[in-house]
Amino acid sequence: MLGGLVVAVVLTLGAGWRFWLAPTRVALVHYPDFQAARIVQARPGPFVRVDALDTGKLAELRGYDLVLMFGRGLALDDAQRAQLRALAGAGTRIYVEAPTNPQLDYTNLAGPDREAVAGYLRNGGPYNYAQLLNYARARLDGKRLFARAAQPPRAVPHDVFFGLDDEAVFTDFAAFQAWRQRQPGWQAGRPRLALLTSVPGPFNANRDQVDAAIRAFEAAGFDVVPIAAMQRRLEFLRQVEPAAVVYMPHGRLAPGQADEAGQWLTRHDVPVFAPLTVFDEESKWRADPRGFEGGLLTMSVTLPELDGAIAPMVIAAQERDEHGFKVFRALPRRLERYAARVRNTVALRAMANADKKLAIYYYKGPGQSALTAGDLEVVPSLYALLRHLRAQGYRVDGLPDTEAGFARLLQERGPNIGPYAKGDFADFARHADPAAVSAAQLRQWCGASLAQVLCDQAAQRYGPAPGDYLRIGDQVAVARVPLGNVVLLPQPLPGIGEDTFKLVHGTQLAPPWPYVASYLWTRNVFKADAILHFGTHGSLEFTPRKQVGLSGMDWPDALIGDMPHVYLYTMGNVGEAMIAKRRSYATIVSHLTPPLREGGAQSAYKRLGDLLQSWDAAANPALQAEYARDVQSEAIALGLHRDIGLPADAPWTAAQLHQLDEHMESLEHARITAGLYTLGTPYSDAGLDATARLMGRDRPQAIPSYRDLLARSPALELAALDNALAGGYTPPSSGGDPLVNPDALPTGRNLYSIDAEQTPSTQAWRVGRQLADQLLARHRAEHDGAWPKKVAVTLWAGDFIQTEGATLAQILYLLGVEPVRDPSGRVAGLRLIPRAALGRPRIDVVVQTSGQLRDLAASRLYLIERAVTMAAGAQEDDNAVAQGVAAAERQLKERGLAPADARRYASARVFGGIDGNYGTGIMGMVEAGDRWQSDAEVARTYLHNMGATFGAGDMWGAFQPGVFEAALAGTDMVVQPIGSNTWGPISLDHVYEFMGGLDLAVRQVTGRDPAAYFSDYRDPAKPTVREAGAAIALEARATLLNPAYVESMARGGASSAETFAETFRNVYGWNVMKPSVIQPQLWDALYAAYVRDAGGLGVHAFFERANPYALQEMTAVMLETARKGYWKPDAQALRDTARLHADLVARHGASGTGFVNDNAALRAFIAGQLDANARAGYEDALQRANEGGAIDTDKGLVLRKQDDVGGASQAAAQPAGATPAQAAQATRTESTTSPTNERHAASVGLLLGLLLALALAIVWLRRRHGGAGGGR
């Protein structure tokens, strides 16, 4: 009986505990830590327990009294959905807050309970969260003991002005202003700054970082107006009338009013800054090479860019609070620097142009290479800009009166010099008056202007400051052209060594000391108020390390500092513009591409065209056969059969004749550029008409409008640059060449990208499927109906943006996988296409990604990896994906990998640059032909440099030798997208770099030359697949061998001439990477056109006028192609080419490029083709450039240290007609007043006197002995 009593008591106590005393348990599922922390902090006492759980722990929810789920971004699999349905059915109270997918709303609260919980959460803040927990205990759990009465939800307006005081919340701006003016420290007359918060905001999260931002911007001199709003943002901005908006972003600036907001920002010229908050701990962010990705990248970076927002610099991150939740904290030094950036930008508005100091960086190869920029004739464009700036009141002193004089000034005072050109450097140091940065100055800047760890990286690579490159004494020379308050600087070589010039697309290695010194001199000595990078593109944005959301340990962030940054960029290269925008905090100002036209009917092909027309029209079979024979004979004579792989020794079928006809039509209608574009100069009437007609081919009614947009753009570009340099707002724009995307006009706007999470778009999915089917049909037609087993594909950012992911769609469809979209249109998952519906085997895919695509769309690379895993899991006998994964696993085990690692790496199919590099790192190697003997060496370098995997988790950037090779095994074809009408397979070096490099790697791994195709998106109405050899031949005939193209380019200047040189280099690059696509006869034709000028186009006169160094480069490339055995010219052609090259070098001096100056084997080969006189002049010129005279600091040549800008201004103030050498001499003469200088001057004078006496003695002896022997 006693036992029964004890049991009863225990049961009673247990029931009492459970029903009256036990803590109420509330689960927070999928809530962000910052919001969960705010709810936990509002807990009214120990009798309410709040636990945060992730979606992987749904099984633990049984027994909770209330389950709150955060529905935004919620993703659940079928098993998790079943768990929640069962839980709801068993009576557990569930409320899903803000579900973005209605199918995942498992809310079972109803009536007043649902309304109350929704009200508490909707209004947020400490009070409402506390009442929510009181309500959960007293009302939902039904416990009265230790329960506080729950008050109704307190309505908190969602659109308010607020202050640092929690109670300072206002719906009326006047009331806020009255309150603000009563606060200590308020000052009238300060520029007003609107600080817009979003997620996290001041009410749904801890507000430490928001309060810190308010204080930082106040300390920077602003009258800060903090705003927490969603529906009334634009209305509030109109009331505030700010000088600038700082938007702590999560999505669009003014949802539902985007166009209206853009018009208001433009009309009132209000810049929008969008600093970043990291949704992870600071330590993890610093270590993560990605920074931002996926939906967070979309909401924090991509969508704000649609509103014209700039400067996505991290100012806050998370740290753990006392409960273990990740809450937000400002990063004080970064926030202070960001406030300074905003202050410096806004200050430009009030600053007179005459007082602004502007640093302009231009891009230039080594030596006498022309200034280059994508689509731009650089020297006339830069000269036009400087004249425009002077007209706008900028102090531009010492600008030469002529463009030719300006070009000479740039080459003499603003060169880049390769480390091999010691003689050129000696001459530069003596005569160009470079700025000097001492080792002591660099050490002082390290730790102050630049993180010490970055200086340590530079010292580890190049030795202690100032290093050896461009060094004189203990100083490093900084090339610059001072023009009063404007200074022009060549962007220094970002790397030196074996790959000097082609490191432009980044290297994990630190840039050399001259690179560092140039930017720090600009900031700390010249003290620029703004910096302008002139043209597409430089290298700053491609220096290491993090991809988006950089830290101070990343070179672009560290070097640009807090300077306002403007970047002039071609409208046609939106992919790389995004890297400049996001990694160097640039405001992009777009400019036009060159005018575009069709290749046109060439006279050399007229007879063939007439014959084809006659053949097609002939009704009589016998007559048609005769025409067919004549067509074939004429086509073979022209070499056109080689373009498309038709036989020379067998009659052509009707299908082959139609193939030739299509090739000829493609050649006639190929879109080509008509010269380059000059900033501020409208197209000619013919250029306007031709470009507008091509734009409006499918919309003829729009042609007048297009023509007007093209005509107005040059003036708008200059106005946009003026405004950006005055701290104004640059309206946003999509990008792409005008034929691909007419909406990118007018130019003079800030380019933006697309939301990667929505790719492939529905339309891109259809295009990708169509091209995949074309690709497979081509392969089957050439391989007796066999399906390919594996396809290797390149992903590039520009094509990805412009086609909305069509190549991604092509990849997914080859695998037999299709996207699954959520209600907002984003690709939320993947679905396996059943084998029966697919109608073919699944094709294995290997993807190489450019660094730009990797940065912009990391989540799409994860999507590909998931698709591979899904496809490999399909149980089908002909599943090439499964077969490829199994084969890779076996191969990796054979290489010695542990079974678990072999299995993990076997399905890796996305590869890219190691260490986060943007390029392959092989172009410099390819073009330094004396440093490799076999293309296998190039292939091995490529396989290493591009062998990093890019999958989720620790597979991001992982490198394991052999994995890339295992993935490429069995590859049948290589595919490359092409989406711009301004470049093609041979006019852009990155095509041979990526596609050619991948092809060479496949050949190295498999021993077979894979088929190669372009996915050609250049005609949006007719995307197509082109065989690589045919595409290359098509571009060569439409450009290099087309008199109309040559004549249009010959009307240009040095940059136009350099375009030919780059194209020759690229043809050579293709020879190395995939010899089968470059017919030897192409080099014969180039020899005839450019060495012999067989077409009578006056090409030699053009190069002599515009840029003789370009023709030096072209002939050097031709001779290197011959030396390497890719071109086999006859003896006469070889001698002609060598003589032309040697004559150019002897008369103009060596150009200083790698081909001309830095290839010892090529120099010897050229010398061997020359007679004694020509060889002597050639070798003397190279000797002067490469060796010259030593720079001896003991003989009085010491660079003047630029401790202030007085030296720069003094140099700029020399007479406009003075040569740089004269100006430098004058400056040195004025500075020789110290005893040391006097002693140096005396020494030099004595030495010169002795040399003069010696010379006179030699002359006297020669005359004396000459007279004695004169009778012979």
Automatic annotation (TrEMBL):
Keyword DNA-binding annotated: no
Stretches for region Disordered: 1208-1238
Pfam families per UniProt: CobN-Mg_chel (PF02514)
Keywords attached to this entry: Membrane, Transmembrane, Transmembrane helix
Annotated CobN/magnesium chelatase domain residues: 706-1133
Residues passing through the membrane, by range: 1241-1261
InterPro entries reported for this sequence: CobN/Mg_chltase
Coiled coil feature spans: none
Low complexity: bias regions: 1208-1227
Key word Phosphoprotein present: no
PANTHER family, A to Z: MAGNESIUM-CHELATASE SUBUNIT CHLH, CHLOROPLASTIC
Name assigned to this protein: CobN/magnesium chelatase domain-containing protein
